[in-house]
Amino acid sequence: MNGKFKIFLISTSRAILEDVKKFIPVEEGYFDVSLISSYNALRRSSLQKPDLVIIAISSKSDETLLETAVEQFGSQNTACVDFVKSYALTVKLIKLSVLSYFSMPEESTSFSDFIKNKAYEWKKKSDIEKLLNIRKEQFDFSNFIGNSDKMKEVLKLVKKAIEHSELTVLIIGETGTGKNLLARIIHQNTYSDIKPFVEINCASIPPTLLESELFGHEKGAFTDAKDRKMGLFEVASGGTIFLDEIGDLDLNLQGKILKVLEDKTFRRVGSIELLKFEGRIIAATNKNLETLVEENKFRRDLYYRLMLLPIYLPPLRERGDDIFLLAEYYINKFNELHRKNLPKVKGLSLEAKAMLKKYPWPGNIRELRHVIERAVILTNNEYLTPDDFKFLFEMKPQTSIQLANETSTNIHITFPIESASLKNLEKELVKSVLVRVSWNKTRASRILGISRPRLDRLIQKYRITPH
């Protein structure tokens, strides 16, 4: 779709063409009107694609042009203005199923309004197409940044998810690895036109309210249900519902989600009517669902249903040199945003690259984004240097930790002698093990030789967080 509404105005009479053209508001700027006054000229235009064809009929030869135009461009793209006013012509126009026809000059105002309405519809469609193109570019999986072997495996599975829209997808990954973005990429590349993408964080809403959010409710279903409410499954029908942090669902809601997965039906709270869900479910979690199943915190049958197409998003520390591709992407992005009138940052120095590679990135891509944004805003350097990132490694004076390289299984913890208390050692040991195993608490408790509840108490006692 180009920048102007293209009209072919056709008649054997140049005078008639000029008269009809007066009713087209070309002064508004987005009309492109071509005057065609012969059969040969009409045939030469057959490869073009006008948005609207108008035949002005004032003679028998114009009727021949009418038939040719309908043949070339289709009846639903062709309108007619009639200067003859014969019954036979009216019958012919009806048989040809033209888009619309007007008796001139009596219906000249209606004709002018018709042109304006068609142009408005075209512009609205054009705006939607532009929006779609922006969204497709934004969520184009081919632009998903990463050349590491692990990301290549991710992209293979993403392609499968796009090819098989009937499959439920489970995205597994730590906080900040891009699960939400990946869900949007799958959705946007699955559907060729605008379909709903509805997301909800299952951990952010209490279970008593979450059921109503997901499935809706009838008026009077509970105390505050003053009106019927559509649930998110209804809103997302025809598109995608993204259930983020599905591992936090309680067992009751897990059973209801399982029913939707099994037979694509659900009920509003307080209703006996079965509603159909015509769409796809994409779920995501940063938890080990297999461990939750063993602990009877997650339904085994739901786990198996979700594992039809699991996609594991690796943490940033496992993606090798992808970190540099991502960093360069964010440098360019924040150059445009924050340094419009300042010299642009050209990239990372070799020393900065080594520094970023060493850092464990507990917040993953989300943390990298904020770190690069801060560095781009504050730096006075042509290339970002270790000084621009030293805040990442600033520790309290009494404690310092040095992790071994990524391929090592060792953890090194060093203290000034005056701070080497058992309490500090315990805290930093627990913290270091959690970081090294990507906050897999089951694995961490096994390495530390303590129970999972004991590990949870230590995390709470020392206020240890992933960030």
Features:
Rossmann fold, HTH_Fis, 467 residues, 15% strand, sequence-specific DNA binding, 45% helix, 18 strands, Helicase, Ruva Protein, domain 3, Sigma_54_int_dom_CS, five-stranded parallel sheet, ATP binding, alpha/beta
Topology of helices and strands:
Layout: E1 5-10, H1 14-21, E2 31-36, H2 39-44, E3 52-57, H3 60-73, E4 78-82, H4 87-96, E5 100-103, H5 108-138, H6 149-163, E6 169-172, H7 179-190, E7 197-201, H8 207-215, E8 216-217, E9 229-230, H9 232-236, E10 240-244, H10 251-263, E11 265-266, E12 275-276, E13 280-285, H11 289-294, H12 300-306, E14 310-312, H13 322-338, E15 347-348, H14 350-358, H15 364-378, E16 383-384, E17 400-403, E18 411-414, H16 422-436, H17 441-448, H18 452-462
Parallel strand pairs: 1-2, 1-3, 3-4, 4-5, 6-13, 6-14, 7-10, 10-13, 15-16
Antiparallel strand pairs: 8-9, 11-12, 17-18
Helix pairs in contact: 6-7, 13-15, 17-18
Keywords: ATP-binding, DNA-binding, Nucleotide-binding, Transcription, Transcription regulation
Protein name: DNA-binding transcriptional response regulator, NtrC family, contains REC, AAA-type ATPase, and a Fis-type DNA-binding domains
Domain Sigma-54 factor interaction: 144-377
Summarize the structure in short.
The chain is α/β, with parallel strands linked by helices and 467 residues long. It is 45% helix and 15% strand.
